[in-house]
Known about the structure:
Blueprint: H1 3-25, H2 30-44, E1 49-52, H3 56-69, E2 81-83, H4 88-98, H5 105-111, E3 117-122, H6 128-139, E4 143-149, H7 153-158, E5 161-165, H8 170-194
Parallel strand pairs: 1-2, 1-3, 3-4, 4-5
Amino acid sequence: xxxDEAAAIVASVLADAIATHERVSRxxxxxxxxxxxxxxxxxxxxxxxLVFGNGGSAADAQHAAAELVGxxxxxxxxxxxxxxxxxxxxxxxxxxxxxxxxxxxRQIEALGRPGDVAFAITTSGRSPNVVAALRLARERGxxxxxxxxxxxxxxxxxAEVHVNVPSASTARVQEAHRTxxxxxxxxxxxxxxxx
Length: 195
């Protein structure tokens, strides 16, 4: 590949990412604010955030939990957040014994309590294991948030709070998800500091 061809690919990716972020910036911020408010209210009441997703969304779930347990931009008390994507023994035993569709729902069953927040991240909105976990979380009295792409799919319809990045490109959705997660962390951190 010639250098100018590679440079054109880079320029195209950056232009697409900027365009997606610009579209997201024009969307109603109410769902983003509602997601952060639900998280902060749960954490203030002694609840916990259970974050989950598949693939790149699993990495985003781990990143979000790390920002809250550690710190995002300010010093404050650690916040109770768990990524349900990190324990290989739990994931593989549940997948083996119950099927992959149950890997997150089983953990919600074990760890979730009424008032906690189940936070699903899915670029398609159609992942059966994500939808199953959201459904179980609602049945058990957890607050539910879905951060989705495309049209939000069943996960978006299942969640109490739905934050959507309306793009068909998985890569662009993931990039916008990371920015939205940072915005949510910033709001949660400020809300907890002001409490």
